[in-house]
Design a protein that fits this description.
With 459 residues, the chain is of the alpha+beta class. The longest helix is centred in the first third of the chain and has 35 residues, at 113-147. The strands form two sheets. Strands 5-6-11-7-8-9-10 form a seven-stranded antiparallel β-sheet. The chain has helices at 7-10, 32-40, 42-52, 59-75, 78-86, 88-107, 113-147, 160-165, 189-200, 261-270, 287-293, 300-303, 306-309, 426-439, and strands spanning 156-157, 180-182, 203-207, 224-228, 235-242, 249-256, 310-316, 322-328, 340-348, 360-365, 397-404. The chain has four domains: 32-146; 148-228, 2-Layer Sandwich (Uridine Diphospho-n-acetylenolpyruvylglucosamine Reductase, domain 2), CATH 3.30.43.10; 235-406, Uridine Diphospho-n-acetylenolpyruvylglucosamine Reductase, domain 3, CATH 3.30.465; 412-458, no CATH class. The two termini are 33 Å apart.
Length: 459
């Protein structure tokens, strides 16, 4: 049975409220104000507000908003952009129609200086709109010629689908569509592509699975190139290696930046081992992103985050050179447990072979990474300038990484503690449990905490 409708909802105001949005075709989160400022400038927005009180029929205002609506819908729709680029006649018809509306506004202005400001600004906006098509066509042609020297042509994508697919990440924050999306086949191609993008004046955006919540893969300029590393999806499987400064051989796995985390976890599991990084997005996120954001997961309480488990990693710098970072004297555990963490940083030319300078040794006090008692997060977010890790792709593009692997204890148990009443009574109990386990961790039989999760009523 339908619920009765309150009488006040059926009441209609004699004067309808002003429209919140007057610009047509705007189905984005941008307000009229933001769109006007983007195309016409902030001063014109002020003029437009002053003219609201002087409207009579509102016809000129509607025509101006139609012009802005056309500009906006094309600028936010790569499919329309492709269509207009491929059809010069259709593009000319649209631009002529925009100028026609502006001319009609000018005719109705009756010499009003404020309206003339709007007309002048609108003409400039349409002129730029038309010029953008010409410059886009020329830059695409130039980019294809330059980039195709280093990767296959079908790895260079200007189409609407590719650009729409790479406009945002898990944040769903949409600022600008990328100019081009690059999908290199091999690690060696990436430095050359970065160099070409620099020469083309494009901002480089590294991207893997697009699962990040930090906005690191979101283009902030229309002149950007997203380099998608998902094709770098090969891994070596489990290999026993001798790491520098470690007396025994260590189980490791070397992964390309595009390896989905779950695949690395499965490869380790097949060998009876554990891959330490197991974020919630493991079925979609990639190894490059794990390094770039210093990913953790449930097992981080046992073995730390990506930082603790990296044996080495490779990256392309913003000047299109190579960096190889190798952990020295790995303690095969949490990095904050050692007095000094040491890393060897080698710089190579674009060919990945020519050493540009003598390797640099970076020494960082282990306890500086995390405060005492902190389970898995890091205190020093900058990591004392250690390249690549937790830099969100801002200091380079991760291309591959080698992780150490672990073995779970023979017996694993999950214990649920249920508390009733005030949560303040639960906190001391949890702290005491952790302190007790920490104190007995080196005794036999060893009992160690693999994870400690708080589940409230939301679960």
């Amino acid at each position: 049975m339908n619920a009765p409708i309150p009488a006040d909802l059926l009441h209609t105001d004699a004067m309808p409220s002003a429209r919140l949005r007057e610009i047509p075709y705007n189905y984005t989160s941008f307000s009229d104000r933001e769109i006007v400022i983007r195309f016409l400038g902030e001063e014109v927005w002020g003029v437009l507000n002053e003219l609201r009180g002087e409207r009579k029929t509102g016809r000129s205002a509607r025509m101006l908003f139609e012009v802005l609506g056309d500009l906006w819908v094309v600028s936010r729709n790569p499919y329309l952009q492709d269509d207009l680029l491929d059809n010069p006649k259709r593009r000319k018809a649209l631009i002529d129609a925009l100028y026609h509306r502006i001319a009609a506004i000018d005719e109705r202005s009756a010499g009003n200086d404020k309206v003339q400001k709007l007309v002048s600004a609108a003409k400039v906006a349409v002129e730029k709109f038309a010029d953008d098509f010409r410059s886009t066509y020329d830059l695409r042609k130039q980019a294809l010629q330059k980039l195709s020297k280093f990767t296959r042509k079908d790895n260079i994508q200007f189409d609407g689908l590719a650009r729409v697919s790479h406009v945002t990440d898990a944040t769903d924050w949409r600022v600008e569509y990328p100019f081009v999306v690059l999908n290199p086949d091999t690690e060696a191609e990436i430095a050359y592509l970065v160099k070409a993008c620099i020469e083309l004046g494009l901002t480089v955006i590294p991207r893997g699975g697009g699962t990040g919540y930090t906005g690191g893969a979101v283009p902030l300029t229309p002149l950007s190139a997203v380099i998608n590393t998902e094709k770098l999806d090969q891994h070596t499987g489990v290999q026993m290696r001798t790491l520098p400064g470690v007396a025994r051989q260590v189980a490791t796995i070397e992964c390309g930046a595009g390896v989905v985390t779950r695949r690395a976890m499965e490869a380790a599991s097949d060998a009876g081992l554990e891959f330490a990084c197991d974020p919630t997005s493991a079925d979609a996120c990639c190894i490059g992103g794990n390094v770039a954001v210093n990913a953790g997961g449930k097992k981080a309480v046992l073995w730390g985050t990506a930082l603790d488990n990296l044996a080495s990693w490779r990256m392309v710098t913003p000047d299109a050179n190579w960096l190889e970072i190798e952990r020295l004297d790995h303690n095969l555990g949490k990095i904050h447990d050692i007095e000094m963490a040491r890393f060897k940083v080698s710089r190579y030319d674009i060919d990945m072979k020519t050493l540009l300078s003598e390797p640099e040794i970076i020494e960082i006090p282990g306890p500086s990474f995390r405060k005492v008692g902190l389970g898995k997060d890091v205190t020093d977010k900058f990591l004392s300038g250690l390249p690549g890790v937790q830099k969100e792709g801002c200091d380079g593009l991760i291309t591959s990484a080698t992780f150490i692997l672990h073995r779970m204890p023979k017996y694993v148990r999950t214990i649920a503690l249920e508390f009733f009443g005030n949560v303040s009574h639960a906190v001391p109990a949890i702290v005491e449990i952790k302190d007790y386990l920490d104190a007995t961790a080196k005794q036999e039989p060893a009992v160690i905490m693999a994870g400690l999760e708080h589940m409230d009523e939301r679960y």
